[in-house]
């Protein structure tokens, strides 16, 4: 492990008040604990070499590389692109911006309105006795996003639980168990191919100091397109990359902010700025909506797609 300030990275910036778009939770233990094994820490301000970075990056059982604590990278070519695009500590910008994952045109990459209202998923029977608790945590984690923006609807399909994997075309994504101790959970971003659309969850999520619904809410934030909030320079550490566009002011209490990355919330809870951010992305309830401001997901060229 090398430079702490360069890569104490988790994957939680999202589009909401304290949100930026990204993917996976590498948190283990209490908020005061150091970053977990899956979220490498470093001490100097220099960017590690490619060889050091590759050696220090966890490769999951499905062959994907895990960066920023919970963000899957498909292969070594994409990992090299990720590395090359990642600045060192002397290259920080967007000091006053909130962030959302962006596409090649530099625009926020979100679900289309027709897709975000039908985010179907299953919870694998392979969770065994813990399946009920996992399913309830997902439902509670989804509720904050759904209540903030009526356009969002995560739909549980329990009839698909006995065949819950990325090959099941009856659901948009699957929630499956993992046995690794490198992260509590990992997710995906809009635009991911069907073979990569899953949330992998360790059973340890039920026994950490973080609430299971908070962890799952964080991962579902990634599914909606939100990156880690601590990616912002205001966090003072855990800077990941500049692959985001601004949405709201910095929020150290965001559900998308890792506590060990100078977050100020003791648990992963949905904040008021999270609510504001997701409404900017996908729209607000009628009684809160601005008559002149359209959500980003409704603008041509802004939205992502389901992938294949």
Automatic annotation (TrEMBL):
Matching Pfam families: Peptidase_M10 (PF00413)
Domain Peptidase metallopeptidase, residue spans: 107-261
Keywords: Hydrolase, Metal-binding, Protease, Zinc
Biological process terms in GO annotation: proteolysis
Region (Disordered), start-end ranges: 271-308
InterPro entries (alphabetical): MetalloPept_cat_dom_sf, Pept_M10_metallopeptidase, Peptidase_Metallo
Keyword Kinase belongs to the record: no
GO molecular function: metalloendopeptidase activity; zinc ion binding
Protein known as: Peptidase metallopeptidase domain-containing protein
Source organism (scientific name): Dietzia timorensis
SUPFAM superfamilies noted in UniProt: Metalloproteases ('zincins'), catalytic domain
Gene Ontology cellular component terms for the protein in this record: extracellular matrix
Signal sequence interval, chain numbering: none
